[in-house]
Amino acid sequence: MARIIIELRHPAHLLPPQYVAVEGESITVGRGYDNAVIVPDAYVSARHLCITLRETGWEVQDVGTENGTLFRGVCFRGQVFTAASGEEILIGRTTVKIHLSADSVCPARRLAGGSAERDIPAPLCRPLVLPGLSAIAGLGMLNRAFYGVSEKLVWSKVFSQAVGLFVNYLLAALIAAGFWALIGRLAVHRACFRRHYTIAVLSGVLYAGVVLALDYAEFLLDSSLTIAWVVATAAMVACFLYWHLSLSTPLSDKRKWMLIIGALCVVLLSAATAYVTFSDDLLKMRPYYDNSVYPPFFPFPSGKPLNLFLAEITR
Known about the structure:
This protein has 315 residues and is α+β, with helices and mostly antiparallel strands. It folds into two domains: 3-100, Tumour Suppressor Smad4, CATH 2.60.200; 115-313, no CATH class. Helices cover 47% and strands 17% of the residues. It has helices at residues 115-118, 129-147, 155-188, 193-221, 226-248, 253-277, 279-283, 306-313, and strands at 3-9, 18-23, 26-30, 37-38, 49-54, 57-62, 69-71, 74-76, 80-83, 89-91, 94-100. Helix 3 (155-188) packs across helix 4 (193-221), helix 4 (193-221) packs antiparallel against helix 5 and helix 5 runs antiparallel to helix 6 (253-277).
């Protein structure tokens, strides 16, 4: 005797699917208590379907119901149609799928972990390493804030601005780690907050280093390196977003990169639109370091030839 499994998906999918196993080759489905499968849906008739196993598939009969049965976009009332295992049949607001106990199921979804966790070296996840990395990023922020203001400002005011930047950075890292930990808890039942915080701190350290390097380059070339900024920022965002996704989602590498590329395309399109809109103002912008504001350790006007620059710093 065949064992039939009826899968019921409730309206709006607010509840998980319900599975009812019934012995026999013919069963009835409806809201009435005399059915083999009872569907708690007010839009389903007392006896709605009669399902019979045939050699060609499942023979489904709508027994003259009030709202009919929707299958493959066609509404059946008092008619018989043939359905394959796993096909969706809509009765009222409930979706019904018919399975045999011998039918195969899809492979289990892979939990994030294992190789994804090994992507982060273990020493970086130790408690004392995170404050050290945060301090390095903070020094980068302090350095840029100090040399990015006029020399007429007192050091205490510059220091307060730098501390504000550092605190904002730490809060941003904590918020990012909390967000990705929540995604991981919902998607793969693992939060990995410390690892996400490590990734956020590392991204801040790398970003501070890249920012300073591009600032020096703009100072030496006496021009704005907009394209370099866009490329460097996009590359860093892609790498660290992939790292976060590897820890908090079971997505395949292909889907991760598709998601990352889509997000970057939206951001770059927005940036390009802003650039075209405000191109005149952007072209008039000076580099971050100009003649009155010098980068650290290089106290000379910008635009100096490279050979003279190298000669002065190697004395």
